[in-house]
Structures are given as structure tokens and as C-alpha cells.
Amino acid sequence: MFRRIHCTVGVGPAPTPEFYFPPSLWSYIQHLTLMDDCFHLTHGRDQLDVPNMRLRPPSHIPHLYVCEEFLGPVVQRTLRQMPLLTKLSLRTCLGVVHGPYWTFLRFALSLPHLREFEMVGLTFCPVVLPDEPFDLDIEGGTCAPLTVFRYEAILTRGRKYAISVEKDALALVLEKTHHSLVTLALPSEPAPISLMARLDWPNLRELRLRGMRWSAPRTPLVILFANMPKLRSLALELRIPDDGDPEAVWPPGLPRSTKFPWPELEHLTVANPHPDDELFAHLPPGLRTLALPSCPRECVKDWLWACENPYCLLAHTFHLLQASRLLGVLKRCSASGLRHLEIEYGTDEREHDLLRFLAAAFPRLSSLSIYRYRGSRETVVCVEDVVRPLASLEGLQALTLHPDFETRPTRIVNIMRGGRLIYPTDALERFANILEGAALRIARTLDKSLERVSLWTPSDGEGPFSANFSVFRDDCTNDVRIQREADTPHEREDVWGM
């Protein structure tokens, strides 16, 4: 029962070893999560909205962006006394840019039994101090042979927060671990892409890159990552600069000798797909999951830049394929055995053609996610008309839908809450009733295999939710009823990107 321990740090005075948990438990711990909650101690000095290097850190902190919870010998001594520790997770849910300094990371990555390292929300090595050796050649050992290295940063932090030392630190880690890694997840901005293209990855099964598309190197991704032949899951969730355009993973015009480099691929995500991408014509027959989302999603723009710009005063470009262009992409797809499909598009006169085609082309789908956006704000959404082309999917068990109802609540300024933009409570309650009726009509329209309907809904939290409904059918009368289940928050994957 003590193999997995979750501990919040930064909520009081500097921790002692006993603060983390009793020493009698140390020898049992295999997975340790440290949740950084020291935001109140930084007094907002390193918030994403106002990072100000002219402000001075407290005297006991060597640099503004160094997280004090990982300073000093206490945390190192504590970790050293955990002989079974195989997974270390460092997390925060705050909009800050600080993180552990190199001395701590260097120590943690050398723990002999460590196999999984995870950092979420914090910055991986924001600074190297003058007296720190910037290497991974540690006395008495070296970097542990990690199988999982997962570093996830806030999606909207952008290139301005990707400092050069962060990329250099990640390069040191990957140079030591590329032979052993099975799973690698990185924010794209500090990822050492050129180095990754030069290394060999004999065991890598999962790669996830999320963030802004890099400006260099310009090598097509189908060539850039051809050195990862064992990939089974590839997620390229790359934002496009506001003044840029989508780019193909496999652009037209490559030599005819170019081959699909990931024959074992089972799960593929390509955000902001290019309509002429040759990749889709070469998908392997074993592909089971295909996701073609926008990144970021337009339906979460009310929350996306909240930590930087709470009133959304800055304009951002959202790249969205029209239904007719997406139809062209799917017609090129060679993976008829798909079980899971996610699409996102703007509606036009070809929407029903798109949905009819996917039902015919991918008859084995068990789950389908559709994010659609009306072309005109005056358009009235009839969910039966939207989902009727999908009625032939006899194995469809779960449908996730952003229907873009015209009755969606709008935010208003709340003076009592400091001028914050909020959704009125009564409007959210009325919308919940609308969603329940829509879920029932969807369940009655689709095949009897349907077990779950999830409909997008806004919230006053840090992101939108899915309103989930279980579907029940009476075998004798064929009557359909639904039951509201717990909502699913979307802030992690859609808003924060971590």
C-alpha cells in the first residue's frame, strides 16, 4: 500500500526528511510524486503573465527561476534512502516557469534503480549556476538507464520561455538514454530536434511532441524521425505560428524511394493536418487509432491564455480544416482497420459527405470523436442531422461530440469577482438540460451498439468538460434511456497541454 506516494511540497517551512513521510516507509516506495505548491512563496515573481527578471529572489534562492523545494541536501538524502524507487514524478498545476536546478536533476537521474522520470508543468533546468558541473558524469555512477522520460510543459508558453540551457540539459539526458528509452514525451520548443534526428533509438515505442512547430531544421518529419523504426505511438501535436501555415509530415515531391518509416505504428496523432500530406496514403494496415485535431482547439480559446492574458486581448490564429478538405485527407487514408478516430473541422456543404464517407471507409470504429464548428453563428444545430450519417457504424460504442450548439452560454463580466469573465450559473444549468436532450436524441439515432455519449460543455474552471451519458436499451421494447455520469475535465490535454 505504500508503493505509490504523493507528497505536496512548498506549503510550509523548509522540509525535513520526516516531512515527506516516515523513514520507516522509505524502503517500500517505488513511485514518488512531488507536487510543487510554492507559488505563494515566489510572490508571483515568475508567473507566466509577468516574468520579470528585474525582481530579486529571496536571499536563500540563487536564481529567480530556481524552485527552492529542490534546493539543499534534504530531498537528496531522502531519495537516496529509497532503494526500490523506480519512478519519480515532479509536478505543478501552477502557471509558473521555475523548476529544479541542475544539481538536483543530475542527482535524481543518477538514482540506480530509477527507470521512469516525469516532470509536468515545471521547467526542466531553467538555469545552470556558476558552480554546477554541467554534465551527467556523476561520481560513483552515471545516468540511470531510463525507459520513460516524460516532460510536459504548458501548451501556450511558446518559444519565449524555451531558454537555451533547457535544450542543452535535455540533450545531455537524451545522449545518455536514447538506447534504453521506450517512451519519450517533450515540449517541442526546447526539444533538441537535430540531436534526436542523429541518435539511434532501438527501443523507442512512443514519441510525443507538443508545442510550437520548430523553425529549424526544415527536414520533413517523415525523414527526420526515420531513425525510430520501432514506434507504435506517434503524437505530433504541433502548433503553427500565427503567421504560418500547416506543414506536411510527408510533403509531396519527396523521392519515390521514400518509405513509411514506422511499420509497427498503431496510434497516430497529427495536429493541424496538411490536406496534401502523403503520409496518409502510406499508413500501415495495423494502425488502430488516428487523431487529426487542431492544436490548439478553437473551442478552448476562452481558457488557453488565461494565465498570460486573462481577458483574451491578444488575437491568436486557429488553423481549422474545412469539412471538404478533411474529406480529401480521409479519402487518402489506407488504414481501413481503424478502431478509434478523432477529427476536427469547420462545417461546409460537404460535411454530410465527410461523415457518410468515414462510416463507409472505417466500418470497424468503436469510438469516434468529432469537433465541429459552425460556419455561421446563425446556423441552428440539429444533432440528429449531424449524427445520422453514422448510423451504419454497427460497432460504435462511444461518441464524443463538440456540436457547437447555437445555445452555448456566453461569458459575462462579473464585477463581484474582480471583473473576471464567467459563465452565469443559470445559463450553465440550462445548457446542461439541452445536452441531456441532445444525448438522448443521439442515442436514438445511432446503432444499438452505442454505450456512451460525451458532449462538450463549458465551465468556470480551468477548462471545458465532457458531459458524459451512459446509454441503456430495453431489448424487448427497444426503448432508449440515458443516465448522466461524472463529467470529464479537459484542462489537462486541451488547455494546459500536460
From TrEMBL:
InterPro entries: LRR_dom_sf. It comes from the Eukaryota. It comes from Ganoderma sinense ZZ0214-1. This is F-box domain-containing protein.
